[in-house]
Amino acid sequence: MFKKTNIRFIIIGVAVVLALYSLYWTVAYNTFSPTKMETLKTAGKLDKFENRIIRLGLDLQGGMHVVLELNIPKLVETIASNKTPEFYSILQASTEESKINNEDFFAVFERNVEKNNFRLVRYFTNRGYKNSDIVQSLKDESKDAMRRSLEIIRNRVDQFGVSEPTIQKAGEYRIIVELAGIQDASRARQLIQSTALMEFNLLKEPGVTQSFIASVDNYLKTGKTDIVKEALASQDTTVALKESKDKSVSVNELLGKTSVGASTQSETADSSVIVDEAMFAEKPFSSLLRNVNEMIGVPESNVFAVKKILANPAVVKLIPYDSKFLWSAKTERMTMQDGKTENFYILYHLNYEAGLQGKYITKASATVGGAGAQTAGQPIVNFGMNNEGAKIFSRLTGSNIGKRLAITMDDKVYMAPSIRSKIPNGSGYIEGLEDMDEAKNIAIVLRAGALPAQVDVIEERTIGPSLGRDSLAIGIKVGFLSLLVVMLFMIFYYRRSGLLADMALILNMVFTMAIMAMLRSTLTLPGIAGLVLTIGMAVDANVLIFERIREELERGKTVKAAIETGYSRALSAILDSNITTLLTALILMQFGTGPVKGFAITLFWGITSSMFTAIFVTRTFYNWRTDRHVLKTLSI
């Protein structure tokens, strides 16, 4: 019997050491000064603490609340296989009407289609022949897109590292996301909202791009859209990008506006641009551009004007039908001939159709470029593709050696390297990233997959932690007060045995919090209520045991026999009551969200821990005493 007691003490000792070790991280983390936090973050050691602490819920530490809505018109546009001006006109009119009247988009879209005798079969293949059948098919597609968006956003948030997030569907096309303890709200919003449509697009030949630039120059100079072929034939393919003396002109002057033409607010916000003075008169568009490493560079101050020119309806018609223009994801800093440094965005002229889409990517990880490489010390994202993607990538690179291949995501170009050789294994990397946080975000969205359609943020609230601190302080006070009252009652009513029950109660709290830390659970305000309830239910088991021991002592049994009989008789009642509570808590954990789930987590682990402390721990101490001494009386 003595050996069994020793084994019991070893088990209790190991449990206590593990619990204290688990709680150490939480205690240490909450005592760090801001300077210490920054030092650990710089050294990359802060994650070790954050991964082992008890996290607080949205109601206790604040966070962000976002309502997203699936952009149904954008989804319909993406699905359409044939897109004409008439199609866009119907789509835009339906979008505006549904917003104004707060009416279902598909109902408005179908009504406008019938009203204009529009045949949808020309724009949507394999979805039936009747307009009503096609609209119904689009409705079904939108519901499936909503389900996929919900799952993808959930996967992204899980990989982002937010504990116990709330992600749920609201209405037909809306998703509510609540993230507790978010420090960088903009990064979280970008991660959630990013469509993450990754594509590999070949760049257009320089001659095609130069023809477009020349035609825009001609339009801005004469107001006509015809291209002077003779001038292009004798023109050097990079002359439009050569550097010369710069001067500042107004956007209105560049676009040919008179003082009568009132500028919009956005125009006046950036009212001047830097142009090549020698070229401005003859080539006004080319004068906005610069040669940056044999690519089209646009000074940061000129980006507004270039975007406005490219959006001009007449200029849009000049863009080759099989191409598009995209901007670099970040600026490049260059030193000019006069010694001054300037920021440039790169403007890329790409094939409209992607050579390969990111849906084939199966793995992605953020890392730092190795020593000796061009990307040494820079954050990069390594990626790998499945077999089908590797085959497509192999054909794409093998047949376009010497050309540039742009890697784009959400209409931003991250890099456009020259293809030096065939890449047969479907692996590569993405560079041109701002920092490691951006690299991690891109790796997350690539692993989770692209959203089937754009999602728009229609509501965003940042919830401050001030109310949470008050609630937490009050909750802690209430918890300690309830714990103190119960402990005093047990001492008063059961004397020394009450002290033993109090020790078990304290261990129960330590074990419960340690388990939550190990499992990275989140403590919410309802969770604190669950802990308070656990305190009452934990001593209930000891009360049952003590009362049974009292009954046995009154019948004249010895102390040792009374303890053994008391525990055996109380065990069935304790198991019955606690197991039913555990089952209820499990159901709430599985199907509950938010406050309900927070309450269930602490209740479940609190009850589990109380059964161990009330039955195993207290029995071990009773056995230890009865093994050492023959007790004639028991203070109970």
Task: Describe this structure as you would to a colleague.
The chain has 636 residues and is α+β, with helices and mostly antiparallel strands. The chain contains 22 helices and 20 strands. Strands 5, 8, 9, 10, 11, 12, 13, 16 and 17 form a 9-stranded mixed beta sheet that branches. Helix 1 (2-31) runs antiparallel to helix 22 (595-628) and helix 21 (559-591) packs antiparallel against helix 22. The longest helix is centred in the last third of the chain and has 53 residues, at 466-518. It is elongated and about 115 Å long.
Q: What characterizes the major β-sheet?
A: 9 strands, mixed
Alpha carbon gyration radius:
34 Å
| SS strand fraction | 15-25%
> What share of residues is helical?
40-55%
Average pLDDT taken over every residue: 79
The CATH C-level name of the largest domain is Mainly Alpha
Number of helices: 22
CA distance, first residue to last residue: 24 Å
Shape: elongated
What is the count of distinct domains?
4
CATH-derived topology of the largest domain: Multidrug efflux transporter AcrB transmembrane fold
Structural class: alpha+beta
Instruction: Please report the total strand number as a whole number.
Output: 20
The CATH architecture name of the largest domain reads Up-down Bundle
Assembly type: single chain
User: Unreliable runs, pLDDT <50, ≥5 residues?
Assistant: 224-244, 255-271
- The CATH superfamily of the largest domain is known as Multidrug efflux transporter AcrB transmembrane domain
